[in-house]
């Protein structure tokens, strides 16, 4: 029996609930899948499936075998990838997911250069603001923004993620500018509806030169508008509808063109005690595949270019965190 072929057939049948669908996926005859399963059941001495008119359902033994078989096949594929990559350039299909606004602004615009540099890599982009389970979805790499929770995935920091308070000249001419974080409570705030609550945590970092200690202030928000999209918040802020808290990667052009003005320049938003960042997230493996590594290295180099989106200040911040490439444990 071709044991690895039989295991692949079993895993496909378990996922799809059908021998015929499994056969189509792995490009063999349905009778071949049926034979593989029969041989596996004979070898193991157990039934792997309960058959019914509704399809296939794993038995208890089938569930146990599947749990361990997934790891076996993953390790085999990884071994093949590592060995075959020694004498060839990065290649294959790379599936990447990312937030919509960040992806449009800072990933898609550089894709032509990436694909010219790596002509043997095909790219499948999934843009969504929903956190995707990358293992279940067959995703090779995710770009995520913020502070990372704990899990079994791996992550590499691409760049710092900073959010600043800003408003349009028209709004400030009509309503004035807040002098302190506490003054924000009297202003119309453009609120991000995906945030945990209607509060901004603003942090003033320590400054040894003038003896300033780090401080933080939590501000309760007021305002009639809530939006679940960064680009919409940016448009509303430029239209003078209120004060917004926006990432520097989204507001760079608006600040340079004078469409927005930064407020409270000594303060930044930081949702947790851990500094947020832009991360490349991928499944835990002994060796990262060459196509994933190529993508991460390419975009990391772009984001750390001086003045890329946050002028010289961003480049300095990135230099401080240049050693943050060590893997982190984060949420699936």
UniProtKB/TrEMBL annotation:
<feature type="domain" description="HTH lysR-type">
    <location>
        <begin position="1"/>
        <end position="59"/>
    </location>
</feature>
<comment type="similarity">
    <text>Belongs to the LysR transcriptional regulatory family.</text>
</comment>
<dbReference type="InterPro" id="IPR058163">
    <property type="entry name" value="LysR-type_TF_proteobact-type"/>
</dbReference>
<keyword id="KW-0805">Transcription regulation</keyword>
<dbReference type="Pfam" id="PF00126">
    <property type="entry name" value="HTH_1"/>
</dbReference>
<dbReference type="InterPro" id="IPR036388">
    <property type="entry name" value="WH-like_DNA-bd_sf"/>
</dbReference>
<protein>
    <submittedName>
        <fullName>LysR family transcriptional regulator</fullName>
    </submittedName>
</protein>
<keyword id="KW-0238">DNA-binding</keyword>
<dbReference type="InterPro" id="IPR005119">
    <property type="entry name" value="LysR_subst-bd"/>
</dbReference>
<keyword id="KW-0804">Transcription</keyword>
<dbReference type="Pfam" id="PF03466">
    <property type="entry name" value="LysR_substrate"/>
</dbReference>
<dbReference type="InterPro" id="IPR000847">
    <property type="entry name" value="LysR_HTH_N"/>
</dbReference>
<dbReference type="InterPro" id="IPR036390">
    <property type="entry name" value="WH_DNA-bd_sf"/>
</dbReference>
